[in-house]
Specification:
Chain lengths: 463, 464
């Protein structure tokens, strides 16, 4: 991203700011490497650079954007000027609080993820050797393994925001190691996986034989897994499953851009009790190492935590620039876009329940008959109907406070959000954020996120 | 095929310069260069108000470099490959371009895979396919505005329903593909995407219904029909009740059925049938299917499934004249009368399994049955549950198992038809067809084309 290009972008934004209530530009792109190895096949390649620039103008009623992958300064300037010549200022829309300093002062800052080992300092040959070593260690653990697949990726997304008196630059590095073990008994194939990921460096690739062994053991046990008898159960959800429940219930449900569309039932519950009093929940893009973390969002808002639920009461939605024009009007740093080709929306980052004071083992011990839900696979939101769908990779039977070893797979969790959240009777003292996932808005607009928290004990409908 | 004049006029990408640089890079055993030029208009509404308008231009070249080298472990040769993406501005600096290509060769030289070759030009050329909407060759903004006006008018005519929001994209894509074996091809296509939410209100209650549609042509977004159907779904959602827990016959219709075969419309990857019929899954020892055997394990009792990949379907979302490697498009039947017929394969996995390459899986076609939907709904001693829409049908590609929340369905019984929602449906996409009846009416989501409904003899609903 050359100095000439950045200078031209600054000049173009300055010109647009003279004509419109708000103008900004986001220059972004990604670099890094992705590797996969399943023993018989290897691949290594650059990450999709998704490089481009998007100019945003609020004309007083409508957000207009010009997005292009052409980063030649002269051609870009011609394109932006031609596009802007067709725009006119209007006064019939909601006013926008830009937050630009009245004294004309400039905020120019640069940010970079702190890493123990910068992945760019590790030669590709060494990365390939390490991934091959993990693959071979895993494959050697059992003859029933038909495939041990190891995936590695490091992606550094660089973005430069220009507007509102700010020129902010960040380099956010996300590194991921995933191991998937597929096993077969000759008649069926089952698998288990483990993921280490975060806004971290190459250190995420440290994985012990014990962790790999656990993954293999679960995959083998899944060969005996049964279908669960549908019904209502006492359940203990691990951190990952709890996190996806948080994400799908009061994560998507409190995205403020859904409020003016009339799509969020939570709009009627601001400052009202929606969950058990023991529940507090956050979305926080500033969590060090969180997979969904960044220093500023795609609209130049500096990352900071949002407390969504306090003691079971819904206190604040998450917002982007446009939606913050609507009540309750607080602009949070949650404006995110998939890449320059897509619009900004109010999006989650790292979403989690706050920990409590009950040891997870005590939770299980307190369940007479129920299921321990492990490893989230997917989830889906329903912000207006407050239905919830979360799929756990498997569940383990609990009888008289003991895990019996009997597995069910997969296990679907459905229910009415307030019923699920109010049924929580214990909040774990543990805490874990599960990264490596992407989140869509509906079925598109994917951005990296993490979710998690403590173990939770609750009631849920399983099937 | 003939190089496209429009690309040449509008492109800032110096494809010839890139091609020459690739050819001059030492260590390149084979190469493929794809150029993609997308122009897109996007329009967003909140209710009747325009929220945002976007103009997007995205042009890039993808260069895949192959390097053959002695295998690091064992004897013989290995092939490594890597793909690099270039923007126009990357190609403008010859030294930087050469350095990146050299780095690419280094990456390719470090990975070992069994050798395979790239396709050569097809002897019979490429088939003619229909992928372009004439209505999108002019001003796309104006075309979108017209569709949005129709959407608003259609919603205005619906009782107790309003438009919450809508997003409409129109995309023109021009692409070229060249490889070191002599393939040189070009294609053009258009795509449209409509995402909208309707809200029904009655008696102080509200319920929404979300729709998402991908097509090649604006004319295939039959706005008035879509709005009529989804407004009805939204109104039915107002009074829908959670179904009981039950194991028995279940009918899937419309998008609920197409999602079983094509769970990720718009995301570009297939479901369990696409995965398990692939040569890649077989090579990786993950396919559960054996050619010549029933996909359901045992001989099915009901209608027998026939599944094909059809890249030639006029205006199908996945329609193409050639696939991502330059293989000519052809229909391939992977499951015939319930029996796994053949694997689809790209050149690489065809080489590995020593089978003919078929090209990439395209639009999925399922042969319809002979029974009208009305008969499928009525042929039941007890209540029949019909699922019209899931919150997200996301079957596990390896096991074929699925658990999906019921967004809307119906209970058909002697007292009539009653809307249901909530709870989940669980099953397995392969074993479910061990006893199933397929409708004679058809449905398409742009990628799936097949029966509009299938009645399964036994699935599990986890309800109240």
């Amino acid at each position: 991203m050359t100095d000439t290009l950045q200078r031209v972008i600054g000049e173009l934004v300055g010109d647009l700011e003279q004509r419109f209530p708000y103008a900004a530009a986001l220059l972004s792109g990604a670099s890094g490497i992705q590797i996969s190895d399943n023993g018989s096949e290897q691949s290594a390649g650059e990450v999709n650079p998704s490089r481009g620039v998007v100019f945003t103008v609020y004309d007083g009623a409508v957000f207009d954007e010009y997005a292009s992958s052409d980063l030649d300064p002269d051609r870009l300037a011609r394109g932006v000027r031609q596009w802007a010549s067709g725009l006119t200022r209007r006064t019939d829309g909601p006013p926008l609080a830009t937050g630009a300093p009245a004294d004309g002062s400039r905020d120019e800052r640069s940010f970079q993820v702190a890493m123990e080992i910068d992945p760019t300092s590790v030669p590709l040959k060494d990365k390939l050797a390490l991934i091959r070593d993990i693959q071979q260690r895993t494959k050697a653990m059992d003859s029933r393994i038909v495939q041990a697949q190891v995936r590695y990726g490091d992606t550094t997304r660089e973005s430069v925001y220009t507007g509102r008196g700010r020129r902010l630059t960040q380099q956010v590095t996300r590194t991921l190691l995933a191991v998937l073990v597929a096993v077969s008994d000759g008649s069926q194939v089952r698998y288990q996986f483990t993921v280490n990921a975060g806004t971290k460096g190459f250190e995420v690739t440290r994985i012990s034989d014990e962790e790999l062994r656990k993954t293999v053991d679960v995959a083998l046990r899944l060969l005996e897994a049964q279908k669960i008898e549908p019904g209502d159960y006492d359940v203990v959800a691990d951190s990952g499953v709890s996190g996806v429940i948080a994400h799908e219930s009061f994560g998507h449900g409190v995205e403020l851009d859904l409020f003016p569309k009339g799509r969020a039932l939570s709009a009627q519950y601001l400052n009202k009790q929606v969950a058990a009093p023991t529940i507090s929940m956050f979305d926080d893009p500033s969590v060090p190492g969180g997979y969904g973390s960044y220093f500023f969002d795609d609209e130049g808002e500096i990352a900071r935590p949002v407390q969504i639920l306090r003691d079971g009461v819904f206190v604040l939605p998450i917002s982007d620039f446009a939606s913050a024009t609507y009540a309750p009007g607080e602009h949070t740093a949650n404006g995110r876009r998939q890449d320059f080709t897509r619009k900004t929306y109010a999006r989650m980052t790292n979403t989690f329940f706050a920990p409590g004071d009950v040891a997870p083992a005590d939770m299980i011990a307190g369940v007479e008959r129920g299921v321990y839900l492990r490893w989230p696979e997917s989830g889906m939101e329903d912000p207006m109907g407050w239905g919830i769908q979360v799929t756990a990779h498997y569940g383990e039977e609990i009888v008289n406070g003991q895990l019996t070893g009997k597995l069910f797979a997969p296990v679907g969790i459905t229910g009415y959000v307030p019923d699920v959240l109010k049924s929580i009777t214990a909040v774990g003292s543990d805490f874990e954020l599960l990264g490596g996932a992407t989140c869509g808005k509906g079925h598109k607009e994917f951005v990296p996120v993490s979710s998690g928290g403590p173990h939770l004990r609750m009631k849920a409908r399983l099937g | 095929m003939v190089a496209n004049e429009r690309i040449a006029n509008q492109s800032a990408l110096a494809a010839d310069t890139l091609g020459a640089a690739v050819a001059a890079t030492p260590g390149v055993s084979d190469w493929q260069i794809d150029t993609i030029h997308d122009e897109e208009a996007q329009l967003y509404l909140i209710g009747d108000r325009t929220e945002a308008r976007r103009d997007v231009t995205n042009e890039r070249a993808r260069v895949t470099l192959y390097n053959d080298h002695p295998a690091q472990a064992g004897e013989g040769q290995a092939r490594g490959a890597t793909t690099l993406t270039f923007l126009a501005s990357d190609i403008a600096h010859p030294d930087l371009l050469a350095a990146r290509l050299n780095d690419g060769v280094t990456i390719a030289s470090l990975t070992d895979n069994p050798p395979y070759t790239l396709p050569q030009p097809a002897a019979g050329g490429y088939p003619r396919v229909e992928t372009q909407d004439p209505a999108l060759q002019g001003e796309m903004d104006a075309a979108l505005a017209t569709v949005m006006a129709r959407l608003q008018a259609a919603v205005a005519g619906e009782r107790n329903v309003r438009l919450s929001s809508a997003e409409l994209y129109a995309t023109r894509t021009s692409a070229t593909l060249r490889n070191s074996r002599g393939i040189s091809a070009a294609s053009q296509g258009t795509r449209v995407m409509l995402d909208f939410v309707l809200i029904a209100s009655a008696g102080g209650r509200e319920a929404e219904f979300h729709g998402e549609f991908y097509r090649r042509r604006l004319a295939d977004l039959v706005i008035e029909d879509i709005v009529r159907a989804y407004a009805t779904f939204a109104r039915h959602s107002l009074s829908a009740q959670t179904p009981p827990t039950v194991r028995g016959p279940v009918l899937l219709s419309g998008e609920a059925l197409s999602n079983l075969f094509n769970p990720s419309v718009g995301l570009g990857f297939g479901g369990p049938y696409t995965f398990h019929t692939s040569a890649e899954a077989a090579y990786q020892q993950l396919s559960r299917l054996t050619p010549g055997e029933f996909v359901t394990g045992a001989e099915p009792r009901g209608d027998r499934l026939t599944v094909s990949s059809d890249p030639l379907r006029p205006f199908g979302v996945e329609t193409h004249a050639f696939d991502g490697e330059g293989l000519p498009a052809a229909r391939v039947t992977v499951v015939e009368n319930g029996v796994f017929a053949r694997r689809w394969a790209d050149t690489r996995y065809a080489t590995y399994l020593d089978i003919p390459p078929t090209g990439a899986f395209a639009n999925i076609t399922v042969r319809p049955g002979a029974t009208p939907i009305a008969d499928l709904r009525s042929a039941s001693g007890g209540p029949l549950y019909e699922i019209a829409s899931f919150s997200w049908m996301n079957p596990d590609n390896v096991s074929g198992d699925f658990v999906a929340e019921i967004k809307l369905g119906y209970r058909h019984d002697a007292s009539g038809t009653h809307p249901i929602k909530g709870g989940s449906l669980a099953g397995n996409v392969f074993s479910a067809f061990a006893d199933a009846r397929l409708s004679s009416e058809t449905y398409s989501d742009g990628v799936y084309y097949g029966p509009a409904a299938v009645r399964f003899a036994e699935l599990t609903i986890a309800g109240a």
